[in-house]
Amino acid sequence: MQRRLLDNNEIVAALEKLPGWSLHGRTLQRTFVFPGFVEAFGFMSAVALVAERMNHHPDWQNAYNKVSVTLSTHDAGGVTALDLELAARMNALARP
Ligand code: H2B
Questions:
Q1: What Å distances lie between residue 39 and 13, 17, 51, CA to CA?
Q2: For the domain that residue 37 is a member of, what is the CATH number?
Q3: What is the pLDDT at residue 73?
C-alpha cells in the first residue's frame, strides 16, 4: 500500500539511500543548488513530468539557483513510499 504512513524508523532507514534529504516533522525536505536559474528551472520542469505521471506532487520554492522541496503525502498526512520514490527520482534528475 503506497499511501500507508511510514513510521520514523522506516523513514530514517530509507533516508540512508537518499543523500541530502532529511525528516522535518511529517515531511521530507531537501534544497537543491544549481549553477544558475536555467538549470534550476530545467530540473523543476523535468520533475514536473515525473510528478504528474506519479500523480504525486512536490511542495517547492525556487529562488534563482535554489529549489527547496518539501515532500509529504497530503491525503495521508505524512510520509509514505510515494515520497521516498519521488525523492529518489529527484536526486537522479539533479545529477549532472
Ligand atoms: N501529491 C501529494 N504530494 N500528496 C497527495 O496526497 C496528492 C498529490 N494527492 N497529488 C493527489 C495529487 C490527489 O490530490 C489527486 C486527487 O489524486
A1: 30, 24, 18
A2: 3.30.1360.20
A3: 98
- Per-residue pLDDT band for 96 (boundaries 50, 70, 90) equals low
Give me the chain's average pLDDT, please.
97
Number of domains in the chain: 1
CA-to-CA distance for 81 and 60, rounded, in angstroms?
A: 19
Mutate to test the pocket of ligand 1, among 1, 27, 75, 86 (most ligand atoms within 8 A of CB): 75
Domain that holds residue 51: 8-94
Ligand 1 centroid–CA 17 distance in Å is 24
Dihedral, CA of residue 4, residue 44, residue 93 and residue 22, to nearest 10: -50
Would you state the cell numbers that stand for residue 52, as one nine-digit string?
504528474
In a domain, 48, yes or no: yes
Is 3 part of a structural domain of the chain?
no
Q: What is the pLDDT of residue 1?
A: 75
